[in-house]
Amino acid sequence: QVQLVESGGGSVQPGGSLRLSCAATGFTSDRYVIGWLRQAPGKGREGVACIDARDGSTFYADSVKGRFTISRDNAKNTVYLQMNNLKPEDTALYYCAAPIQEFSNSGKATVGPTGSWGQGSQVTVSS
Fold it and tell me: How far is CA 6 from CA 66, 98, 104, 120, 127, in A?
């Protein structure tokens, strides 16, 4: 059974940092494009970042470029999202998902129809 299990998240003041982790079980993550998406209250879901675990290529939405870093540890079957210089507008429920079939720097992201999702991690940025 394919599972993505997230950890991390929490509350932080503007300018602070958080790290999200996504551990994959039931499949080998190094064969997939794995990504992070988020959904803020009252807004649609948007892509944040994704990584092609086969060659390490990374892609980011313009809204987070330069502040967020996605990485992976294939030995641990885990993908990370390091979030620095967080802003109140980053407040959202964050999900990891795979496989990512489409991703644009505008935040459009498509997950495969039989893809897997993490349980969601709340990130709250406020003073």
Answer: 23, 13, 23, 7, 25
Tell me if residue 31 falls in helix, strand or coil.
Answer: helix
Q: Which DSSP helix (H) or strand (E) runs through 27?
A: none
CA 62 – CA 66 distance, rounded (Å): 9
Kindly report the backbone phi and psi dihedral angles of residue 12, in degrees, each rounded to the nearest multiple of 5, phi listed first.
-150, 155
Average the pLDDT over 9-22 and give the result. 97
> Residue 59 and residue 112: Cα distance in Å, rounded?
17
Instruction: Give, rounded to a whole angstrom, the gap between the first and last alpha carbons of the chain.
Output: 41
Question: pLDDT digits over 70-109, tens only?
Answer: 999 888 989 999 999 999 999 999 999 999 999 999 999 9
